[in-house]
Design goal:
The complex is a heterotrimer of chains A (about 120), B (about 675) and C (about 210). Chain A is mainly α and about 120 residues long. Chain A contains five helices and no strands. Chain A folds into two domains: about 5-85, no CATH class; about 85-115. Chain C has about 210 residues and is mainly alpha-helical. Chain C has a single domain (about 30-205), classed as Four Helix Bundle (Hemerythrin (Met), subunit A) (Up-down Bundle), CATH 1.20.120.80. Chain C is built from seven helices and no strands. The chains are: A mainly alpha (about 120), B mainly alpha (about 675), C mainly alpha (about 210).
Chain lengths: ~120, ~675, ~210
């Protein structure tokens, strides 16, 4: 097999793909900004973890919200799911929703059991 | 290979293939005949047949195990099996039937018919497809080698903790069981991803989701259940492995653990698994009933949506297997209601099947009889199922033979009768000859009588309080009169042997159809006056499946090509305008010139068989893990570097520059 | 050499056929990408099970070796940051691959692999420290479930690093059958998934006190 041939054709394909690509395309700079944002959120999370006693009941929801912000930022933008075809979302969220639902339900039964 | 890849009408002599070295020392196994054509094949039809043959073999193995159990229980104080062997027998009977027969049998039909029904030439990832099969076979062999290596698993197929821990089961049986199921789990997971992508992406032009044959729909739903259920059992099996092989205490009560964790993980997998077993058969009878009623499936969208609903609700009912475990009243109430709710979509399906037959021109072929048998027997099992959904009643029935009666009615009466309907219905399509209807009748009736004789009395035995998994019963506790356990145990055992004989008749029928002096003549192209796309090709189908990619405009496309609606307004009057032979002639006349199928590969089988090596390593010797991992790594790199289609020099006659029509396959 | 002819004949690049309109998928989407997302959906249930096991057992430990005693939050925060940044470099590799800029792609892929290895090294260091403090795999239910969960994640990162390095090697030697940009994108999806799992683990396991 000749490696050059493969190379040439691969380039062809990419040209074709690019014409087909989505309009909602982020520039590298935007990705960098998002990453900085995520780093800041992580820093806030860590800072909050040292203030458990001050925050009281607010602590858990606050930390979970920050976690979800990070989670979905990566899914939406880094993984490009927000702009991609609906099928990818369906397949992924089906698993995610089932996992969250089933496991939370299972953990809840343990709570009832011990009560 | 070349001949098959470039179908040219009339030319039936195998052309010479010239396998070219692909990478390094290896050459591509492009043989189209002989054992290599099976070992390295990536053709979904050959893989489907291999799945089927392997599954039927394990059906016999599981059946033998069942007969030993029933022989042991036929009379009081049975001596055929020791307590220990008896435990191994019922564990392996269930494991074999569930994981090594019904699941792969659904994979067999799914593999063979989903691409045909959606008008595709193969699945989306043919090499992964081959890998799935070999992986299943490797896992199946691995589990069963435990018989020779110190005894098989003995904890029941649900392998409840902490009973599955080393102190209670010191042999390696459960290790074999756990690791083997991990391997077959990989097979199911990769197979499921493959079929889902196939259905999403490889449908013929015009075949929207609501024009898809119902069997394909049900397989589609089942694959989603598999994709999301397998990882749950994977977690459970890993925890079990760490517990048994590396001294973790995930399920040890004395270490403060909650053994219910195992039950939750197992049944979060296990309940969807029940639908994984039965939905493919629902799909099969939904194909068979319309054909032999000469009517379209009644309420097709409802059947589709109720199938999907069963799949979805099936995720929210797992704890009904645990009512007796002390879940707490709130959990029990919630899961009890959810369980009753699942009877609704199931009922919808049964009503739709009955309405399909209502007013139809019924033809009682063997396939049709098996389909009707499913409706009747499954409904009985479904009704006893509702009695378990009621938690107080379930607490009485838990761990008695009543439960055994219930799940044999839904699994044998549901899943397995459906599989037999499929075998009789699709046999001429797969092998080009028809199974004998006469022997088939005996086959059917013996199975039905045996089924009811074997499993019917179990209701009585169970309500009388005989526990499942007890290796003997004694005369002293058998009770008196009509409810005497001894009598019903004997009837049940006789029934089991009748059932076994009925099943053997199928194998005789299959042998007789193809060999011996009563060999059946080639089957007509469309023996049943069928409705779906798989009949729009030769029997057995060509390697490329269809001469040209079909363009679909109707649900039941094949029927609508044969029949024209001459009725006016709401009145339908279907008149036959073409025969299957005429339709096939049109297809052949307009055949696509050059079709490239992906080429065979030996990486899938190599990768698959590296897994049991690693698994033996976990049990015996850590060095074997490294050896297995090395082979796996080699196979994966070989696979990744290998193009999906062999280079052109493998083809003969050489490329003549015709239109280059290729499959969207690259797995 | 008849390479071009060979290629057309073998036609092992799906997208090549797009030019002729011969290639057909019902949704117009790539099989590989659909499979990858489905696999990731399936992985959600794997990690869900492991996280649940940990949540159930995190409080069951010997008195002086519980989560709140052994965690070194600054250290774990640093390694979380490393993994988070590797997602950025992965994205940059994907955009470079879409521009079919092989050199830049390889640079970012390599940096991603280095960051990933750094994370794994951090985990090895963390495990060793815990072990020295007396927290073995079988010490308590907490330790078993913790090591199982983070161990599984670590294996996923390691597999990701191997994938990244393999892709770099294959790009350099032009050995990728099919669409190069898509291969990079698929590895990227896997990599980001490993990252989001760590986002969950970092908050649920480390930051929320038991």
């Amino acid at each position: 097999m000749s490696t050059e041939t493969e190379n040439a054709t691969t380039d062809d394909e990419i040209d074709f793909r690019e014409a087909d690509d989505h309009v909602d395309h982020w520039t590298d700079l935007q990705f960098v900004y998002l990453a900085i944002g995520l780093a800041i959120v992580t820093a806030i999370e860590v800072a909050l973890s040292y203030m458990v006693d001050d925050l009281g009941a607010l602590f858990l929801p606050l930390l979970l919200i920050l976690m979800l912000i990070k989670f979905f930022s990566v899914v939406f933008y880094f993984m490009h799911l927000k702009f991609d075809n609906r099928w990818f979302s369906i397949l992924f969220y089906m698993g995610l929703v089932l996992a969250v639902g089933v496991y939370i339900a299972a953990l809840l039964t343990f709570q009832f059991f011990s009560a | 290979m070349a001949l098959i890849e470039r179908p040219r009408t009339g030319d039936l002599t195998p052309a010479v293939a010239t396998p070219e070295a692909t990478y390094g020392a290896f050459r591509r196994p492009v043989e189209s005949t002989g054992w290599k054509s099976w070992l390295f094949t990536i053709d979904h039809k050959k893989i489907g047949i291999m799945y089927g043959v392997t599954a039927m073999f394990f059906f016999l193995v599981g059946g033998l195990e069942a007969l030993l159990i029933r022989a042991q229980l036929a009379g009081p104080n049975g001596t055929i099996l020791s307590a220990d062997k008896y435990n191994q027998m019922f564990t392996m009977h269930a494991t074999t039937m569930v994981f090594l027969f019904v699941m792969p049998m659904a994979a067999a039909f799914g593999n063979y018919f989903v691409p045909l029904q959606i008008g595709a030439r193969d699945v989306a990832f043919p090499r992964i497809n081959a890998f799935s099969f070999w992986c299943f076979l490797a896992g199946a062999i691995f589990i069963n080698t435990s018989w020779l290596l110190g005894g098989a698993a003995d904890g029941g197929w649900f392998m409840y903790a902490p009973n599955s821990s080393v102190p209670f089961s010191p042999t390696n049986g459960i290790d074999f069981w756990g690791l083997g199921l991990q391997i077959t789990g990989i097979a199911s997971l990769t197979g499921a991803i493959n079929l889902i992508v196939t259905v999403i992406n490889m449908r013929a032009p015009g075949m929207t989701f609501m024009k898809m044959p119902i069997f394909t729909w049900m397989i589609f739903v089942v694959q989603f259940l598999l994709v999301f259920a397998i990882p749950v059992i994977t977690v459970a099996l890993f925890l079990l492995m760490f517990q048994r092989s590396f001294d973790a205490t995930f399920f040890s009560v004395e270490a403060g653990a909650d053994p219910l964790l195992w039950q939750h993980l197992f049944w979060i997998f296990g309940h969807p698994e029940v639908y994984i077993l039965v939905l493919p058969s629902f799909g099969i009878v939904s194909e068979v009933l319309p054909v032999f009623s000469k009517k379209p499936l009644f309420g097709y969208p409802l059947v589709v949506f109720s199938g999907a609903a069963i799949g979805f609700v099936g995720w929210g009912v797992w704890a009904h297997h645990m009512f007796a475990s002390g879940l707490g009243p709130i959990s029990v109430a919630v899961f009890s209601v959810a369980t009753m709710a699942i009877a609704i979509p199931t009922g919808v399906k049964i009503v739709n099947w009955v309405m399909t037959m209502w007013g139809g021109k019924l033809r009682y072929t063997v396939a049709m009889l098996f389909a009707i048998g499913l409706i009747v027997q499954f409904t009985i099992g479904g009704l006893s199922g509702v009695t378990h959904a009621v938690a107080p009643s379930d607490t009485q029935q838990t761990d008695t033979y009543y439960i055994v009666a219930h799940f044999h009615y839904v699994l044998f009466g549901g899943a397995i009768l459906g599989i037999f309907a499929g075998l009789y219905y699709w046999w001429p399509k797969m092998f080009g000859r028809m199974l004998s209807e006469k022997i088939g009748m005996w086959n059917f009736w013996l199975m039905i009588i045996g089924l009811n004789m074997a499993f019917g009395p179990m209701h009585i035995i169970g309500l009388q309080g005989q526990p499942r998994r007890m290796y003997v019963w004694t005369e002293a506790r058998a009770g008196e009169g009509f409810f005497n356990l001894g009598f019903w145990n004997l009837i049940s055992s006789i029934g089991a042997f009748v059932l076994g004989f009925g099943v053997l008749l199928f194998f005789y029928n299959a042998w007789r159809t193809h060999f011996g002096k009563h060999k059946a003549p080639p089957a007509p192209l469309d023996p049943w006056d069928a409705r779906s796309l798989e009949w729009l090709t030769t029997s057995p189908p060509k390697e490329v499946n269809f001469d040209r990619t079909p363009v679909v405009s109707h649900l039941d496309e094949f029927f609508h090509r044969k029949y024209e609606d001459r009725g006016e307004g709401d009145r339908h009057d279907f008149v036959q305008v073409a025969t299957a032979e005429e339709l096939l002639a049109i297809e052949e006349a307009n055949a696509d010139a050059d079709i490239h199928l992906p080429s065979p590969s030996f990486w899938p089988i190599l990768l698959a068989f590296s897994l049991p090596i690693m698994a033996y390593g976990v049990i015996y010797n850590i060095i074997m893990i490294a050896v297995g991992a090395g082979i796996a790594l080699l196979a994966m790199y070989g696979w990744a570097l290998e193009p999906a289609t062999a280079p052109a020099s493998d083809y003969d006659p050489p490329e003549d520059g015709g239109t280059d029509l290729e499959l969207a396959t690259n797995g | 050499m008849a390479d071009t002819a060979v290629h057309t004949a073998a036609g092992h690049d799906d997208h090549h056929d797009d030019h002729h309109g011969g290639h057909y998928t019902s949704t117009g989407l790539s099989n590989n990408k659909l499979a990858m997302w489905l696999f990731l959906g399936s992985e959600c249930l794997l990690f869900g099970g492991l996280i649940s096991t940990y949540m159930l057992y995190r409080g069951r430990h010997t008195s002086n070796l519980g989560p709140d005693q052994v965690w070194d939050i600054p250290f774990t925060s640093a390694s979380s940051f490393v993994l988070l940044m590797s997602s950025l470099t992965m994205v940059l590799a994907v955009t470079a691959a879409k521009r079919h800029d092989d050199r830049t792609t390889n640079v970012w892929l390599s940096i991603t692999a280095i960051l990933g290895s750094l994370f794994v090294a951090g985990q090895v260091y963390e495990f060793t420290t815990f072990y020295r403090e007396g927290l073995g795999f079988t010490t308590s239910l907490f330790s078993s479930s913790f090591y199982t969960l983070t161990g599984f994640h670590g294996v996923h990162v390691t597999v990701g690093v191997i994938l990244l390095l393999s892709v770099v090697g294959m790009i350099i030697r032009n050995r990728i059958p099919g669409d190069k940009a898509e291969v990079v994108e698929l590895v990227g999806l896997y990599w980001h998934f490993v990252d989001i799992v760590w986002i969950l683990i970092f908050t649920l396991v480390y930051l929320i006190p038991a």
